[in-house]
Design a protein that fits this description.
146 residues, alpha+beta, 4-stranded mixed sheet, 4 helices, 35% helix, 18% strand
């Protein structure tokens, strides 16, 4: 007996949004990435091994802001005004604390997901289902999966 648990994950940057899948044999802790903790699904709590599959479906608005500022300072260094205390003129990203100071109170823990999330989830679900079928039912013909 084995539990396969699939859950959404909070991505740390836009490149990982619906582009990264995490596999683990330690179970899942639903809501932990967004501060909405739920009962964990682990071998200890369920009494059977748990394989966790996490799909990045949301990203923090603060991460998007930090990435935007980094890209702006890297691609348009002439827009930086170090004397005015704006963005640093170096190609390095501004300090996380600087972005937090300016936007932290406005963005807080806001999470963002693409507007076409339903379609994207359907696509990812097909990929995950096919991978599980291949892994757990290797002798079945593909036409027998659905």
């Amino acid at each position: 007996l084995l539990v396969v648990a699939i859950d959404a994950l909070a991505a740390r940057n836009l490149d990982r949004l619906l582009g990264s899948v995490q596999l683990a044999d330690t179970g899942i802790h639903p809501g932990a990435g967004v501060g909405n903790n739920r009962q964990s699904l682990t071998a200890e709590s369920l009494g059977v091994p748990v394989v966790a599959i996490g799909v990045c479906t949301v990203v923090q608005a603060m991460s998007i802001a930090q990435e935007a500022v980094h890209l702006l300072s890297r691609n348009h260094p002439e827009s930086a005004e170090p004397d005015a205390g704006a963005w640093p003129s170096s190609p390095e990203p501004p300090a996380k604390s600087r972005v937090d100071q300016v936007l932290g109170s406005r963005l807080g823990e806001l999470m963002v997901t693409p507007k076409e999330i339903d379609v994207l989830i359907d696509d990812v679900a097909e990929v995950v289902a096919e991978a599980l079928n291949q892994a757990l039912q290797p002798k079945l013909d593909r036409s027998e999966w659905f």
